[in-house]
Design a protein that fits this description.
By secondary structure, the chain is an all-beta fold. The chain is built from no helices and three strands. It has a three-stranded antiparallel beta sheet, with no helix packed on it.
Length: 63
């Protein structure tokens, strides 16, 4: 049986932001240390690890 401590994790983000052509731009590398084997907390129904890092581009406008 799993305890609550088995499913704890830490998120992280490393990014930059800037304003250009009237928009707010962001670029970040985000991830987590949430990893697990089959049957553990961080697997989806297809058995894929949910703890992968990703590059995220964002664009926003303030009114």
């Amino acid at each position: 049986m799993r305890s609550a401590g088995d499913c704890s994790y830490t998120d992280w983000k490393l990014g930059l932001s800037a304003q250009a052509i009237g928009l707010n731009w962001g670029l970040a590398w985000v991830g987590t240390d949430a990893r697990g084997g089959a049957g553990q907390c961080y697997r989806n129904v297809f058995g894929r690890d949910l703890g992968k890092a990703a590059l995220v581009l964002s664009v926003g406008k303030t009114f």
